[in-house]
Amino acid sequence: QAAIYRAGTYGRRPAVPTDGSRLEAAAERVMLRRAFAYVTGAAGSEAGARANREAFERWRVLPRMLVDTGERDLSLDLLGHRHDHPLLLCPVGVLSVAHRDADLAVARAARRYGATPVLSTQASVPMEVVAAELGGGGFWYQLYWSADDELTASLVRRAEACGAEAVVVTLDTSVLGWRPRDLDLGHLPFARGEGLAQYTSDPVFRRLVTQRVAAADPEELGSHPAPSPTPAAVRTLLSMSRHHPGSTRENVTSPEPRAAVDTFGELFARPSLTWADLPRLRALTSLPIVLKGILDPDDAGRAVDAGVDGIWVSNHGGRQVDRTVAALDALPEVTRAVRSRGSRAPVIFDSGVRTGADAFVALALGASAVGIGRPYVYGLALAGEDGVAEVLRNLVAELDLTMALTGCRSLTEVTRARLRLAP
Ligand code: FNR
Q1: Ranges of the chain whose pLDDT falls below 50
Q2: Distance from the CA of 33 to the center of ligand 1, in angstroms?
């Protein structure tokens, strides 16, 4: 942080505001209305998203004096790899609405600051392209378990083949949440056909689309409630197909883009998924498996019993269920459920983290690592790769500084003893 203050002394202004609220407000000024609504929005009355922030407000950090914190080490082992610090970049779909470099800009920024990006199934850039940018490793893949098992298997195999270090299965989006801002303005992936890069670059998905085109009466394509893609969507789909080796512009001729959006619409949700399906995923890959969206300690226990490698406590940033419990409030109980089974599986946390001090609180309440969602998307919208890098740099710097001022030399010293409930 000394370097950040020094830069300010010499008149160099940061590319993005350091404060979380000003960051969001600055992003709102540069983003398209519908894009900002998609990123910032949450389910229903957005009480779950507010609860995430209120939960942090209930905690106070207790500093310690005269501890030698001259040397601090934020590094940790996570799922078999060494990480420089405990911050992860959460999977966020349709990043192309924030910046045209989308997932590539995020990957580059993550590499600059030693953070692991978690690449979404709803990404704007195919995973192979991001993996090549990262040199074939240093990222996790987030899976939305498709209604089509063959497609799911194909996505997992591709992730493994291109160097993903873990598969994060997001369980809380078995159907898409009720999000008034998107409902009123149009949900971007559906309305514009964006965020489909992992699908349109997938051989199984492409086969399903081809079959659909061959079988359907052209008049019927698009009978799914999704409106037909706009010319912008067709352009997006065409450019996505260019990312995929072996695909040619001719592969994606009308009515393919429309059939692709319809096929995606049908395969996206899988509300029938149960614990009984997990062994099939285990059989598909030797990569560590992390379950994202766990809030109930009983679910955490089942996950440990099922032999998963990591638990990710999250309420999806309040985007799925209105009035959900705050993810932070669920964290201590989930951690207890995992540790009481003798499991050392990492407990990852996200939802509502806006500052380095927030990350400190989550770590003190038992998180092994902490995910950041919306803040880095705002950084991306404001200044592309540099914006994401600055958001990340600021969070790591503030976490490091908080550790210094609370007498914590390493993450193992960031414990519940460093917190008090607000009076
Ligand atoms: C998300 N999130 C998400 N999660 C996931 O597993 N796959 C995805 O594709 C997405 N997409 C997505 C888009 C947008 C715009 C947002 C804001 C979030 C949820 C994300 O991974 C994370 O759980 C939350 O964003 C964390 O909350 P905060 O940090 O945004 O409060």
Answers
A1: 223-229, 242-253
A2: 19
- C-alpha of residue 62 to centroid of ligand 1, in Å: 30
Calculate the CA 103 to chain-centre distance.
Answer: 11
Q: Which residues are catalytic?
A: 316
Return the ligand 1 atom nearest residue 293 CA. Answer: 23
Question: Which helix (H) or strand (E) element contains residue 167?
Answer: strand 167-170
Closest residue to atom 10 of ligand 1, CA basis: 92
Choosing from 21, 28, 92 the residue with most ligand 1 atoms within 8 A of its CB, the one to mutate for a pocket test is 92
Whole-angstrom CA distances from 39 to 264, 273, 376, 380, 389 are 21, 27, 11, 12, 19
CA distance 347 to 349: 7
| Spatial separation of the C-alpha atoms in residues 276 and 254, rounded to whole Å | 40
Q: Which of 39, 141, 319, 358 to mutate to test the pocket of ligand 1 (most atoms within 8 A of CB)?
A: 319
Specify whether the CB–CB gap between 319 and 196 falls below 8 A: no
CA of 109 to the centre of ligand 1 (A): 18
Q: Which atom of ligand 1 is nearest to the CA of 172?
A: 6
pTM attached to this predicted model:
0.93
Contact 163, 234 (CB under 8 A): no
Place of tokens 């200044």: 383
Q: Is 350 in the pocket of ligand 1 (CB under 6 A)?
A: yes
Residues 6+ apart with CB under 8 A from 134: 107, 111, 163
The rounded Å distance from CA 307 to ligand 1 centre is 25
* Helical axes 327-340 vs 47-57, angle rounded to 10°: 70
pLDDT digits (tens, 9 = 90+) for 171-191: 999 888 999 998 888 766 655
pLDDT tens digits for range 65-86:
999 999 999 999 999 999 999 9
CA 202 to CA 133: how far, in whole Å? Answer: 19
Q: What DSSP string describes 231-275? A: HHHHHHHHHHHHHSTT--GGGS-TTHHHHHHHHHHHHS--TT--G
> Model confidence over 281-325: pLDDT tens digits?
999 999 999 999 999 999 999 999 999 999 999 999 999 999 999
Exposed/middle/buried for 82, CB within 10 Å: 0-12, 13-18, 19+? exposed
